[in-house]
Design a protein that fits this description.
20 helices, Growth Hormone, Chain: A, single chain, mainly alpha, globular
């Protein structure tokens, strides 16, 4: 199929290679991230914060979890600059390496019983590096897959980047599920380290795959233009409004997602409900598998229905599912909980699968990597980073899980509004005009 830029051909074969590389890389990144999230919910309150009661230990554990989210905007700026100036490929290779090294080192940390506060301090430092890496990863991987795709298949191939999230969560949940089945003595002493150390294998595979891919046609076209400003300055001057809209969209796919996964795990295994860790981890593992299976079909549906329509459905149905999910957990109805944990991951996929293509086309090609990463990083920092701590705080203040459900509803409303007002630009623009006038737009829904 002819490219929208002279001399370039966007084929399904190239799009598939780029999509596969994006999926492998983001799977490794999200595996590393969710290994930490799962440990923060189940293991770290006892391993690194044993001197405080469970609720305060959980709050402290989620605090270290949040640190990475607040590093994401900085990672987006740093690696966005690299990606916009030097290419998507070098930026993505560096982020993958940083994430892998940081994750393996977490598995080597001394616990509180061995080294006191040294362990938690080092945990925070390594978590900061994880945040930097993820902040630069998602935007670049999304652009690698979307910019290499044929025009009518952008949401589908963008879904390969989104596929990394459920696959990473699946690997993480499965690893901890196996360890939990071995007993708390294994999990809480040395077993929790194994999923972190296993990352060294995944990181090698991910880097090997990424080194074999080509740059995107859009970036190669952009290199022919004179760069008259740094990417972050361009983004703040011309893209501030879509950055704000992207910040709102992330409320559900980041904040709502961690409530439905990380916080739900913590609540279900807490003393008020006391569902076994192996049980909730089994449910989350099955749910991750379901999410992985439906991500690409939903992304393909986004090309037919429009990415925004799929987002609306995903956001609304996720909030509708959260209520019976909480009721089933409170009632200790494990069978129903198993089903609903998978259902909400399916509905959340409706707000996740089209995200790469939707957000990529919120920005013009100039400084697109930086703009997209900034919007995603800021949204993840506020919504994803603070949501577990806010949920824990609401539970402590009100004593009711329904305050958390109300907060989930607020996240849904913000994401809905962000989606409604998000602009959409095609790469097929008058390139001569857009090179001299950054306000030139061609709108269209993907």
């Amino acid at each position: 199929m002819p490219s929208t830029h002279p001399g370039e051909v966007k084929t399904h074969r190239k799009a598939l290679r780029s999509g596969f590389a994006a999926a492998v890389g983001t799977t490794v990144e999200w595996y590393d991230f969710y290994v930490y999230a799962t440990a923060a919910a189940i293991v770290f309150p006892q391993v690194f914060f044993p001197e405080v009661d469970r609720s305060l230990g959980t709050l402290a554990s989620f605090g270290t979890y949040a640190v990475a989210f607040f590093m994401r905007p900085l990672g987006g700026i740093i690696f966005g600059h690299v990606g916009d100036r030097l290419g998507r490929k070098p930026a993505l290779t560096i982020t993958l390496l940083i994430m892998g090294v940081a994750t393996v080192l977490v598995g080597c940390l001394p616990d509180y019983a061995t080294a006191g506060m040294l362990g938690p301090v080092l945990l925070i430092v390594l978590r900061m590096f994880q945040g930097l890496a993820v902040g630069g990863e998602w935007g670049g991987a999304s652009l690698m897959s979307v910019e290499s795709a044929p025009e009518k298949w952008k949401t589908f191939y963008g879904g390969f980047t989104q596929l990394g999230n459920p696959l990473g969560a699946l690997l993480s949940s499965a690893a901890f599920w196996i360890l939990a089945a071995a007993g708390d003595d294994v999990l809480m002493t040395w077993g929790w380290r194994l999923p972190f150390l296993f990352s060294v294998i995944l990181i090698g595979v991910g880097i090997w795959v990424r080194l074999r891919i080509e740059e995107t046609p859009v970036f190669e076209h952009e290199t022919t233009r004179e760069k008259d400003s740094t990417p972050i300055l361009y983004a703040l001057r011309f893209n501030w409004l879509p950055v704000l809209m992207g910040f709102g969209i992330i409320a559900m796919s980041s904040g709502g997602y961690v409530i439905a996964t990380t916080f739900v795990q913590n609540y279900a295994t807490g003393p008020d409900v006391a569902i076994g860790a192996d049980t909730i981890l089994a449910a989350m593992t099955v749910a991750s598998f379901v999410e992985a299976v439906v991500t690409l079909p939903l992304a393909a549906l986004g090309d037919k229905w429009g990415g925004k329509m799929l987002m609306y459905l995903g956001i609304g149905l996720s909030f509708a599912t959260m209520i019976p999910l909480i009721l089933s957990i409170e009632a200790g109805n494990v069978a129903v909980m198993f089903v609903l944990v998978s259902v909400i991951r399916l509905t959340l996929s409706g707000a996740w699968a089209p995200l790469s293509a939707l957000m990529a086309h919120m920005f013009r090609p100039q400084a697109r990597y930086t703009s997209m990463s900034l919007a995603y990083g800021l949204g993840a920092a506020v919504w994803g980073g603070l949501s577990p701590a806010i949920a824990s705080g609401l539970m402590t203040l009100t004593g009711s899980i329904w305050s958390v459900v109300a907060f989930f509803g607020l996240l849904s409303a913000v994401a809905w509004l962000g989606t409604a007002f998000a602009p959409q630009h095609r790469d097929a623009v008058d390139t001569a005009a857009s090179a001299t006038d950054p306000t030139v737009q061609t709108q269209g829904d993907h």
